[in-house]
Amino acid sequence: MPAAQGFDQHATGRNSLMRGFNLLLMLGGLLSVSVMVIVTPLSLSGQLAFGVGSVIFGAFLNRRIKSSWVSYALIVISVLTTVRYLFWRVTETLPLGAGFSWLDRVMAAGLLGAELYALAILVLGYFQIIAPRRRKPLKLPDDPGLWPTVDVFIPTYNEPLSVVRPTVLAALKMDWPEDKIKVYVLDDGRRDEFAAFCAEVGAEHVIRSDNKHAKAGNINAALKNTRGELIAIFDCDHIPTRSFLQLTVGTMVDDPKVSLVQTPHHFFSPDPFERNLDLFRKAPNEGELFYGLLQDGNDYWGATFFCGSCALLRRTALEQVGGIAIETVTEDAHTSLKMHSRGWKSAYINIPQAAGLATESLSAHIGQRIRWARGMAQIFRRDNPMLMRGLKLGQRLCYTNAMLHFFYGIPRLIFLTSPLAYLLLDAKVIAGNGLMIAAFALPHLFMATMTNSRIQGPYRHSFWAEVYETVLAVFIIIPTTLALINPKLGSFNVTAKGGVIDRDYFDADIAKPYLFLFGMSILGMLVGLWRMLRPEAEVETLLLNMGWTVYNLIILGAALRVASESQQRREQVRIETQVPALLRMRGADDDAVVEVGETSDLSLGGTAFTNLGLLDLQRGDEVEIALLPERRMLWLPATVRRLDDDGVALQFHDLNIEEQSFLVYVIFGRADAWLNWRNRENRDRPLKALAEVASFGLEGGRIFVRTLIQSLVSFVRFRTT
Known about the structure:
Elements: H1 2-39, H2 44-64, H3 68-92, H4 102-128, E1 150-156, H5 161-172, E2 181-187, H6 192-201, E3 204-206, H7 214-223, E4 230-233, E5 239-240, H8 244-254, E6 258-262, E7 266-267, H9 272-276, H10 288-300, E8 311-314, H11 315-320, H12 331-341, E9 345-348, E10 354-356, H13 362-382, H14 393-405, H15 409-425, H16 434-456, H17 464-485, E11 505-506, H18 508-532, H19 539-562, E12 564-565, E13 580-585, E14 595-602, E15 606-609, E16 622-627, E17 635-644, E18 647-652, H20 657-669, H21 686-720
Parallel strand pairs: 1-2, 1-4, 2-3, 6-9, 7-10
Antiparallel strand pairs: 4-8, 5-10, 6-8, 11-12, 13-14, 13-16, 14-15, 15-18, 16-17, 17-18
């Protein structure tokens, strides 16, 4: 027997050695082929054939085969075509000879730097999502006595009680043993009405003597005065479902080294892009790519990071790293980076278990993203993940990608202005023939679009990343640059939530950079047309730069359209929710006529009820409605506000705490409240997405013309008075 075991071990070792040798041979062969593909020089016709062949082959794979291996193949082709393009750019198209000016060289260096940045983001992005982990919740022990104690922290500063109240009521109703959970409202506003509310509902009202370190300091102060083994953190407008702890704590119990379980940030109100462009629930929103795909990719590499809310953390891990990080304004990601560097694990459960309010206005949205960008730049400067001790390679690359992403301001501005440098200043940004440039550049652009559409399609549609980045680019350049120079600069700012927009208006202040760039692009097109008429015109190069400018005009026009704010008067957001309901006249007894139907939407202020017929209702009638998500009976008083063929709109009266709590549960707290909101069937179709963006770009062009005319009229009036 020992001899046989020794023979088996020898054979196993030899097989392992052969497998390793074969793997090295395969990798060496792939590397050799890749180098040949990248560096082999081709004529214009040869490069056209290579580019067209790559795109056709990629399109065939994309359309005909659904296997994940096709996604990997598309990634390889995309990277090869991109690196081939950049190799050609570096070796063939830089304006280095005596016939080029300093302007040519400066502009060319800027564009090449932007393209190298884009390559880094492309490759890191592919790495990040190469194998998204779809983690499932783990079962808790059968004995609730073995479940850990949980402290629920709800930090607040200047938000009104109307925003915070639903979150507190929902947190108090989470499924967890009463003796093992405490809800704390961390009130940095130190408000008496909050103290009275907490006393009424059974939450703990916690204040401190100062507001040092903002949200991070608020949480750290509470950590010192609480004892729960686990800490659940919710922003004050993020309302948890009752099942949040049931779905997250099992992962913590199963593995004592897990320091963080993060769930998605889900929003039940439209963000400025969705509201102003009327895209709410029609297309993936800006955050869906991160919470729908990238965090699952991070989870595969052990790099899920804390997002500040809708998360569960282990107290011992927090205490080991000194609490929530206070050195940067993105304290959440910085905290998880510190925990990962100490060997703690993290997990992501991609099931929405809380929902919150999106930013109402574009200006507020930009302010929030400026803070995120500044904070990520601060972390990159202070605790660079590529240099920080204790991290695994996958964690280093995922964190680096997340941080580098927020440096897109300058590259995006370069991409928007590079064709203008040639059209307006005759700067040789790329020293090459227009047809050759197109032959190298277009295959790389087509393959990147096709590959990302396949991988990211359910989470972000093609060309929308350019719109999002264009809207923010100008505003994040200074904060990220200053943070790299001095990471201590900048302070935490609270994102306003729960406001209204009482009228439609165009936010000209926010839109000034887009208006300027749009106007310069129009001028560039006009100059390009004039240059086309000259006998010495480089027609191919002019057409290439004018085509590039047309695309930029589409993106800038869409940015202008986003800056056209749409009215939002309702203080309470109506949410499409179908819940069985009963309706009767106010004060009716149990034998009175009852209308059976369901809600079509619900809010904390009212509801729309369908399937009328039995009750003879008039506007202003006092009624009672019972919402029956799980056949629980509680009659809520309401007034009829509108009658039409679709049903009746009701406005709730002032509800007592029991009624408010039940209504919050019906709308937000049900375990399945948000499970059907994600429309995974609305996949990306790049041409359709481009047409959609172009339609918004056209509307933005009309806004530009209208704004220009208004400015000229105002100028003339000013000069004549």
